[in-house]
Amino acid sequence: MRLNKNIIGLILGPILFSVIMIFVDAEGLSFEAKCILASTTWMAIWWVTECVPISVTALLPIVLFPITGGMDLVTTTAAYGHKLVFLFVGGFLIALAIEKWQLHKRLALNIIRVTGSNKSRVILGFMLATAFLSMWISNTATSIMILPVGLAIISQLKDDPKTIENENKFFGKSLMIAIAYSASIGGMATLIGTPPNMVLAGVVEESYGIKLNMFDWMKFGVPLSSFLLIICWLYLTKIAFKFKNEEFSAGKEEILRQIKKLGRFSNEEIKVLIVFVLTALGWILRGYLEDYIIPFLEFISNLSLEWMNNIDDTIIAIFFAVTLFIIPTKNHKTNTTLLIWNDTVKLPWGILILFGGGMAIASAFGKSGLALWIADLLQNLDNVSLFLIILIIVTSINLLTEVTSNMATTAMLLPVLVTIALAIEVHPYFLLISATLAASCAFMLPISTPPNAVVFGSGFLKIEDMFKKGVWMNLISILIITLVVYFILPYVFDMSAQMIPVN
């Protein structure tokens, strides 16, 4: 019988775990650290091979860490209830409300309408709409929602008498790829936009006690995402796909038809939009609240408002998420409030568990001493230039996530990069953020990201199409991320390579 990848992974994980536990006795490696190393190796094999669902693999620390003696059960399970888990729960609930009441479709269609009616501008409109939604909603849900609109536009091109033969197929390929790429790029802009960003925030807080809030990340993520999106659009419309005829009058008509079909803003849409805007403003303005508003209010009132400093992104997210279960709807018998409990079945529980598993690994690396042991092994890397290290990390993870889950990859590798940063004595942001961003830039294969798989299912694309266009987009993203992290990152976060945070 021929063994497939799943069976090999299923067997190899426990075997390597046993080998490390029985035979590995390295100098400086404590028993607790060896247990964590063995357990993480088992998880890494299962994550890479996906022999069981990756979220199920993320539950292994609850079994392996306490049984082996690597970390106690209370500390291990606490990672799955980290405050950042609840930040994402709040964000996901708000996203569910946006989807439930079709607000995302209205926002997307109006963005597309504004951008114009020639082919390149239609693609730009779709990319802007997809990227914006992907900042707040999962890139999978975004691409699934945008796809039917894109297919309707393509069909209009086919019916246009001015259409060049097979031009609709050519345009269809470019639009499908544009939707997939922009969904991935847009998610990079916010902490809740894509799972790797969630893992980054958790690892940074667990390892260094640094709270990476929404506004801190958006100062860096939004400009980078916007720049990469523009470059991607130029690449797709000027190099990868050159249209012989840019005119596309029927496209605007189709968009207007779909907007008209939606009708006027419903009472529920308006309420959800208000909640969404208030949440976003809360995240963005929280830093100003701590630095300027609270001291000013304390000065003029002569009262202590220290309790307001306890407000953070998680509290804001959960507060507004709870309001969605309180605010009533209008004339809806089955939905008395904007969200009902039955809606929560659509929450991405698997991602939340996966995040908890990543947090458990990050915590165990530090508490067991495994991080310091790995750092000692990597001391020779301090002779390698930081730019080259960043380039290697970005390239390696970019290629790795073409065939593995970006969430699992970051959960597995970010704790290791923490130790590498310690070994070479550089600020960890250079390595951690490089890896995180690279994990969102897998453009070559249908299996690389859910958006890639969604658009591949449209029937307009072959694997050859995605590979040829994706190779160049991968190279572009590798170059941009490397340059931005090395040159721009220190200014945005006001730090230098020599600044080493200590928890």
Structure description:
With 503 residues, the chain is mostly helical. The protein has a domain at 103-262. The chain has helices at residues 5-23, 31-49, 54-57, 60-68, 73-78, 83-100, 103-115, 119-134, 139-159, 167-187, 195-208, 214-240, 249-262, 267-301, 313-324, 349-368, 370-377, 386-400, 406-424, 429-438, 450-456, 463-492. Helix 8 (119-134) packs parallel to helix 10 (167-187) and helix 18 packs parallel to helix 20. The longest helix has 35 residues, at 267-301. It is globular and about 70 Å long.
Chain-wise SSE layout:
Layout: H1 5-23, H2 31-49, H3 54-57, H4 60-68, H5 73-78, H6 83-100, H7 103-115, H8 119-134, H9 139-159, H10 167-187, H11 195-208, H12 214-240, H13 249-262, H14 267-301, H15 313-324, H16 349-368, H17 370-377, H18 386-400, H19 406-424, H20 429-438, H21 450-456, H22 463-492
Order of helices and strands: HHHHHHHHHHHHHHHHHHHHHH
Largest sheet: none
Task: Report the uncertain regions.
Answer: none
What would you call the shape? globular
Helix content estimate: over 70%
Cα(first) to Cα(last) distance is 52 Å
- Backbone CA Rg: 24 Å
Please work out how many helical segments DSSP would assign: 22
- What does the average pLDDT come to? 83
What structural category do the secondary elements indicate? Answer: mainly alpha
Q: How many distinct beta strands?
A: 0
Q: How large is the share of residues in beta strands? A: under 5%
